[in-house]
Amino acid sequence: MPYATHRPTARVLDILQLLATAKDGCTLTEIATAISVPKSTIVPIIRTLCERRFIAHHGTNKYIIGINSLIVGSACLQDMDVLELFKTQMKRIVAATSEASQLGVLINGDVLYLAKEESPEPIRLISFVGKRLPAYSTAIGKALLSEYPLESIKKLYPQGLQPVTERTCTDFDALYAQCQAGRERGYFMDQEEISPGINCFSVPLQYNGHYIAAMSVSIPSFRLDDAKKERCIAALKDAKEKVEQAFTEINVSDIDFFAKSFQAQPL
């Protein structure tokens, strides 16, 4: 007997996947339109998901992903040995630099942040695991976009490169040049392009010939000088070397799981 998709379950999953990729959430009408289901049909599903806190109702009449969805996703990440490897190196980066370190992957033109190690400094970067930001405005994103040809980058952003701050790069040719320059020097950066007063440096992590993730250090402008910059870049490059060396010592299935779940979209 051929398998048939269970439509009510599929609709629940469609809604969760839609809201997971919608930066500002979606209205009931937008959800119904996106998954091609009448509003009357999805209202009970929406209410149940809200009651169980898998989604939440935003003050602007939009629905966003809820805390229990994050808990379920985090349970998956907790079992990934390779993620623990990254976090160990991120802690060493923080110890060497006294600045926050983050791990991100590329998802549909955005950076999705999978892990963060906090800075011990009283004034620090405000961010959180699960946050998504436009890749072209972040150091991690530029590292991961650097594998892409220019035309593929343009396809990721059909509406163009929208400014996040006044320093965000909004020109495709300039962005591509920055990505290629980063590959040549071995690290990538953004200078207050995603958040005023915050500078980031990043290195990509390579597995099986492709960049599957990138690690970064974020530094407030008032703490950034040449010595701090060199210390951060050295710590990132050392972590990159250790992580990529360790890939050969980790059970292959662990790396495959990470790569298949989170690696960048096909070039």
UniProtKB/TrEMBL annotation:
<dbReference type="InterPro" id="IPR014757">
    <property type="entry name" value="Tscrpt_reg_IclR_C"/>
</dbReference>
<dbReference type="Pfam" id="PF01614">
    <property type="entry name" value="IclR_C"/>
</dbReference>
<dbReference type="InterPro" id="IPR036390">
    <property type="entry name" value="WH_DNA-bd_sf"/>
</dbReference>
<dbReference type="InterPro" id="IPR050707">
    <property type="entry name" value="HTH_MetabolicPath_Reg"/>
</dbReference>
<feature type="domain" description="IclR-ED">
    <location>
        <begin position="68"/>
        <end position="249"/>
    </location>
</feature>
<keyword id="KW-0805">Transcription regulation</keyword>
<dbReference type="InterPro" id="IPR005471">
    <property type="entry name" value="Tscrpt_reg_IclR_N"/>
</dbReference>
<dbReference type="InterPro" id="IPR029016">
    <property type="entry name" value="GAF-like_dom_sf"/>
</dbReference>
<feature type="domain" description="HTH iclR-type">
    <location>
        <begin position="6"/>
        <end position="67"/>
    </location>
</feature>
<dbReference type="InterPro" id="IPR036388">
    <property type="entry name" value="WH-like_DNA-bd_sf"/>
</dbReference>
<keyword id="KW-0238">DNA-binding</keyword>
<dbReference type="Pfam" id="PF09339">
    <property type="entry name" value="HTH_IclR"/>
</dbReference>
<keyword id="KW-0804">Transcription</keyword>
<protein>
    <submittedName>
        <fullName>IclR family transcriptional regulator</fullName>
    </submittedName>
</protein>
